[in-house]
Design a protein that fits this description.
2 copies of one chain form a homodimer. The first copy, chain A, is an alpha/beta fold. Chain A is built from 15 helices and 12 strands. Helix content of chain A is 42%, strand content 13%. In chain A, a hairpin with a 4-residue loop joins strand 11 and strand 12. The longest helix of chain A is centred in the middle third of the chain and has 16 residues.
């Protein structure tokens, strides 16, 4: 598999770290302009087009982050490189770059996520230890989110057999503080810390659901041990389903509020499990590369003639967009803008933070 | 719907109460000889053919039981009569006759069985009360087996809204003794006691699984609240599935042994429920008359010529039979006995207690 040159790695990091360049925008830019370097070159013109400033990360800033990661014995891994976790390549909006500390000798293919309530009960923690220990002994690496409660129990019980903690902030911003020692222990035992966020990034509330897609995406399946209704663990389970991965839930008494989420998941189709054997039996058939249920992303046929947006195309598109997600084909028909011009305008709006994609085909104005 | 005359009712009871006449044999006799009365007339010849004595209930014995039931304010109800519970007509091996006390004003169509562990936990009993109360308030009659634990909790919580207790022994043989007062309360509140067994019959271990098919068969669906592995409640659940009825199970922690049965049922396809609303939603689509998954019973084309068994047919069939269930068509081919003679011989062996049907098409020698 190809390795990036140092200059390419710096360019990837610059593009990923620039304002409003999420995984979807990153891929659209590279599809449109042919390479990461060409996309960086195109950003200033797109910014002028958008008429709104957005920050483009400088070469020096990217080199500084790589050097700082180096001092932490961490590495930047790009999608397509041998070190990039293969299971993660199959999810929608996979991160173009990850920063990883440790984990060089882990089996990143034989992975199970175990997630659950921060306010775990003693029984929930015990169940987590039982499942994790048996999965570890069966050769599975356990992935979790380093949160209090179930996550902590899962990491602790898999320290010696292999554990991966996915962070919502930078590698140097362990959350919660009380788990800073656990993060060190994970590295000490050869486990890994993983994040797509920059060094120094303190996690905000919205970063946790985004992180959760990596927890499930790194894993053949996700086990939910205790989860209340509307909890982060249920978000991870939903993401796992969207990623076409197995979701397992530990049942509990309907009289126990901590069992509500798991029981609801089972009613919605998650597999009820009572032991690691139940999980292992299902995972033996798991194939993380199986076809996703998603529609493909919109990608226009780009003709040989470059057709830049016309003078009033921008205002016509802006007035056609709303906060309700609209299909690209509908926008094309309504505005009569050419596909090439539409792509450029959407990239401009996207980079300026004005729109968001709710799937590869649906786009909406960002709410206030 | 037709009502039996007193003489017919006595004849039905005589046939049902004769040795080795279970529901399947009863139907085969009536199919072969055209009526209950003609079947009774044929029994002596079949006994001579079998060469083994079996008890044929006399008219006086049947009349005595009917009179005794009358004194208990109980009634004998035959399949096909208006009072016979319609849901029960759709199950394999439905009892030809039931004896019923009370329940005249119950809605026998809107029924849910609730069964579970005799050694119920406090939480299990609470869950049962919650489910039963809500089902009762929604107009459902609750069916159970009058056992200790969950059954008792279910009957108690549905006394005022409607409850049916199915017994494994005679109407005058309430088991366990401690529930004799509960049985009286059920009748006092207008609920019903139901059994297919004769007055004076003390239940043996084998009578409980047989009774359980009536619990599930009377009901649109069966709810299992707490059940250990290999428990009677799981037998009821399996019977409900065989009857093509809904099976619901209350989940519990894998650390709680009382949850093993329910969790295993959910893994096998039972619906996880946490509230009466979950049950009611499913039952709104339940149709107890939907086609069963069973093969049909063997029923030979009877030609106009009566072909009695030949001299050595009996010994040839006996040596062809084994304790392994064998298909009738195979027995016909192997022994070259005519279908008419085969039917007579199998009825003789059946009435003499020598064979058992393991489905409508498979027959085996009874084990020692």
């Amino acid at each position: 598999m190809p390795m990036l040159t140092p200059a390419q790695r710096t360019a990837w990091l610059r593009l990923v770290r620039s304002d409003n360049v999420g995984p979807v925008t990153f891929r659209q830019l590279v599809n449109r302009f042919g390479s990461v370097e060409a996309s960086l070159d195109a950003l200033p013109a797109l910014m002028r087009g958008a008429g709104r400033p957005f920050r483009i990360t400088s070469r020096a800033q990217a080199e500084d982050e790589i050097a700082a990661l180096d001092r932490l014995n961490a590495r930047v891994v790009a999608m397509g490189e041998a070190d990039y976790p293969e299971h993660l390549t199959h999810i929608p909006a996979a991160p173009p770059l990850l920063t990883i500390a440790g984990g060089q000798d882990l089996n990143w293919h034989r992975t199970v996520a175990i997630v659950g309530a921060r306010n775990a009960s003693a029984a929930g923690a015990k169940m987590t230890r039982l499942l994790t220990t048996d999965l570890g002994e069966a050769g599975y690496v356990v992935v979790s989110g380093l949160a209090r409660g179930i996550d902590t129990a899962a990491h602790r019980a898999s320290l010696t057999t292999g554990t991966i903690a996915v962070l919502a902030g930078g590698l140097d911003c362990i959350y919660p503080d009380e788990n800073i020692p656990l993060a060190s222990e994970i590295l000490g035992y050869g486990g890994a810390l993983v994040t797509e966020m920059p060094l120094g990034w303190e996690p905000r509330a919205r970063d946790f659901p985004r992180r959760n897609r990596i927890v499930s995406g790194l894993s053949l399946g996700t086990v939910v041990v205790e989860a209340a209704k509307r909890s982060g663990s249920l978000i991870t389970a939903r993401l796992a389903l969207e990623q076409n991965r197995d979701v397992f839930a530990v049942p509990g008494s309907p009289l126990d509020p901590r069992a509500e989420g798991g029981n609801a998941l089972i009613q919605q189709g998650a597999k009820l499990i009572t032991s690691a054997a139940d999980i292992i039996e299902s995972l033996s058939a798991a194939d993380p590369s199986r076809t996703l249920l998603f529609e493909t992303e919109w990608q226009p046929d780009i003709g040989p003639v470059d057709a830049p947006p016309g003078a009033d195309d921008r205002s016509r598109l802006l007035s056609a967009l709303s906060t309700t997600p609209t299909d690209i084909e509908e926008l094309l028909a309504q505005t009569e803008i050419s596909p090439q011009a539409m792509q450029i305008l959407l990239l401009e709006f996207d980079l300026a933070g004005q729109i968001e994609w709710s799937s590869g085909q649906l786009v909406a104005l960002r709410g206030a």
